[in-house]
Amino acid sequence: MEISSKENTHFFSNNTILPVDRSSFKSESSTSKEKQSCCGGIKIFLGALSFVYFAKALSGSYLKSTITQIERRFDIPSSLVGVIDGSFEIGNLLIIILVSYFGAKLHRPRIIGAGCLIMSAGTFLIAMPQFFMGRYRYERFPSTINSTVSISPCLQDKSQTPLSALEKSQAKINAGCEKEAGSSMWIYVLLGNLLRGIGETPIQPLGITYIDDYAVEENAALYIGCVQTVAIIGPIFGFLLGSLCAKLYVDIGFVDLDSVTISPKDVQWVGAWWLGYLIAGVISVLAGIPFWFLPKHLPKPESRKDSSTSSEQSKFIIEENKDPRKSHQQQAKLAEMAKFLPSLKNLLGNPVYILYLCASIIQFNSLIGMVTYKPKYIEQQYGQTSSKTNFVIGLINIPAVAFGIFSGGLIMKKFRIGVLGAAKLSLGSSFFGYLLLLSLFAMGCENSDVAGLTVSYQGAKPMTDYEQALFSECNSGCSCSKNDWDPICGENGVTYVSACLAGCQASNGSGKNTVFFNCSCVGTFESSQSSSAVVGPCQKGNECPKMFLYFLVISVITSYTLSVGGTPGYILLLRCIKPHLKSFALGIYTLAIRVLAGIPAPVYFGVAIDTTCLKWGSKRCGGRGACRLYDSSALRYVYLGLTLVLGTVSIFFSVAVLWVLRKRSSPQDETLSANGERGAYGTKSRKDNFVNSDQLIQSTYWPEKETRL
């Protein structure tokens, strides 16, 4: 009886357990379905966000690739181009606080979609001046523009020129002045870039937090890492697009290309800069479309429904509709506002944070200025075309930067490097990077021989007053203007500012095939065998191509070396502050970098580069235009020197950071060692560090990372 009763009890107990098993099975099944739908939604959002990151990185890098094209097209100095470049940061700063605060309350995907539309509108606006300001006019002697009238370049007497030709030429100039007198079309480029900055603002903060809120916790870091990887690919395509458009003439499709008398090697050449902006604008529009169909909320993963690790923004969204908690939430807000000043005081009282912030600001000044004007430096120093310059940067430098960032993170993980090690790695990266940059001083090209500017008409060194040196006895009988820039290359290998200043008496042919004869200044030059010349400037010296190759090798190694320190530096920033101040500290850091580096660096780098100009162009209606010829040696010393000086100052601040960290950590380590707890503490410290590294991966983005070369 006892056995049978036990069996019955066992039987009934089994019967009662079975329904529980079925219900648990059903709950597990529903959970898995929910997880699948959640994963499907977040992966769609991930793909859309990755495409947006690609679009914004592409348009940003394309702007860098068109700096020289914009300068020539609008006849503006480098300093003004720097203001245009910095307007993106200004636009970003205008609404960053509003977007960050109110974005969490609203429909985040649609805000990102609206941002994409604004970004595309700004990109289209940048290209608009091309369709309103008429065809591009470059300085050329009339006989080289397929004219049937034979005109002597050296106008000894203006009466020898047919009146009809002079009148037509003067009428065109006057018409151009009437059209351009009240217009500064570069303002549209500035406003377009400002709009780009406004539109880009919600993408990062709202996109990253959306992934963090609705992704499975262990997958969030991986997803955000994928987004940042795609952001690295964008600049590669941006510079390659810039290379392609720079090969095409600015007015392609509007003029007969056979009538164009300049080549891409000419300093007056302007590529189809506007075409790339139209392409980038279309890509931005396409990137924003999916966000208008994504939901405001996704199903939360089961593991995160009751988790305390969910983001503050998602908590705020969930709690705001619960009436009983409204008053409590308002009290919490007031309490947080009251803590603002103590938090700021706490942050500014952290010597490691302040020193690292100063080091970062100065280093980003160095890097942003260097990256912005790198295409111009390569073009002017090594005589390369805009197309080749952008191709080299996109295909060689950007991948080196991406590999450097990846290597820095890999080193940190492989060797389990802590705060002190991160500071050392960041310092070492900067030190060796700028040391390599120092070698570039020896890899420059000499000035081209330009009569009256870099050499005298007799072949000797020029006089101190460059403008007066343009005139000599050999062209004293010609009616020439010192403001013209229509270079020709004499058979003696010397470039002359114009055929008139070369004293040429006759010409044959038209367009690019024009040949000038009986050039009195070419014949008087030392060891000159002939007095003829052809259209266009002479090529740089024979050693210049070799120097350019050396420059590329060192530049790639330098880009990689400097980028290795990016991730360790970011880890140092996150771990040197209290956990509850991290968001605030990162906000202050980003704001400081944008305001004190992103905006001013392109401007004062441009001002410094303008001081090295030997020959300024002239606008059609008077006034100074874009620079036509730079002093190669002065440009090298100013560009590299300014970069190195700023980099050296940042290294001193990094040394100070390391010194403070050593001073703080040494007594603690000695105490722990004496108590025999060092091993346990080290394990715990490493564990805490890697918990923090999850937050690092979610935020491993810093200003201008994509184009940090």
TrEMBL record:
Residue ranges crossing the lipid bilayer per the database entry: 40-59, 80-104, 110-132, 220-250, 270-294, 353-371, 391-411, 423-443, 547-574, 586-609, 638-661
Gene that this polypeptide is encoded by: Slco1c1_1
GO terms of molecular function: bile acid transmembrane transporter activity; sodium-independent organic anion transmembrane transporter activity
UniProt domain Major facilitator superfamily (MFS) profile: residue ranges: 45-665
Domain of life: Eukaryota
Family, similarity comment: Belongs to the organo anion transporter (TC 2.A.60) family.
Pfam families recorded: Kazal_2, OATP
Topology in membrane: Multi-pass membrane protein
Gene3D superfamilies (alphabetical): 3.30.60.30, MFS general substrate transporter like domains (1.20.1250.20)
Protein name: Solute carrier organic anion transporter family member
Keywords noted in UniProt: Cell membrane, Disulfide bond, Glycoprotein, Ion transport, Lipid transport, Membrane, Transmembrane, Transmembrane helix, Transport
Catalytic activity line of the entry: 3,3',5'-triiodo-L-thyronine(out) = 3,3',5'-triiodo-L-thyronine(in); L-thyroxine(out) = L-thyroxine(in); L-thyroxine sulfate(out) = L-thyroxine sulfate(in)
Entries under NCBIfam families matching the protein: oat
One GO BP annotation of this record: sodium-independent organic anion transport
